[in-house]
Specification:
TATA-Binding Protein, 5-stranded antiparallel β-sheet
């Protein structure tokens, strides 16, 4: 068994701690999150329509909660530990932005199409959106993806504003 010198061991532990701390912060900053007090059905329709009004066309919809419910018996206690009452997802794209990104950095087309997931619990719906600026910071398409992110988040905020009192 090899024993590391104390200063090297402390350095390794400190680096691991910093890495874990940064990772947690990165995850928190990576996801846009907006919660409103309204049922998912109403919020979902509002998000769908607002995205399309902003030329982000929904190309696929998934009712994840319904699909997962089929496994309730098989998964037993492991099923729906968060007690979510609904999970729905929208996959969407704006062709103009996709074309622009493809000309700036084709690798960033890995972000296309974008998606948002809505979850419902205790009468509240939360919109979750992985920000495209996080993986694209060093990309030539970073400015375009910042604009995409800003436009999408504004659409989510507008959709949510219909449920604010």
């Amino acid at each position: 068994m090899t024993i590391l010198p104390t200063n090297r061991l402390i350095t390794i532990l400190l680096m691991a701690f910093i890495s874990l701390s940064y990772g947690g912060q990165q995850t928190e900053q990576s996801v846009f999150k907006l919660t409103v007090t309204a049922p998912i059905a109403a919020v979902y329709d509002s998000v769908y329509n607002t995205l399309e009004d902003n030329h982000f066309f929904v190309v696929f919809e998934a009712n994840i909660g319904r699909n997962l419910s089929r496994f309730a018996g098989k998964w037993g206690e492991a099923y729906n530990r968060s007690k979510l009452t609904a999970i729905r997802s929208l996959v969407f794209c704006n062709a103009w932005y996709a074309n622009k990104v493809s000309g700036e950095d084709p690798d960033m087309l890995g972000l296309c199409p974008l998606s948002a997931t809505l979850i419902e619990k205790d009468g509240q719906t939360t919109i979750l959106f992985l920000k495209p600026t996080v993986p694209s910071k060093a990309s030539p398409a970073a400015a375009t993806l910042r604009e995409v992110q800003h436009t999408v988040i504004q659409a989510f905020q507008k959709a949510a504003s219909y449920f604010k009192k």
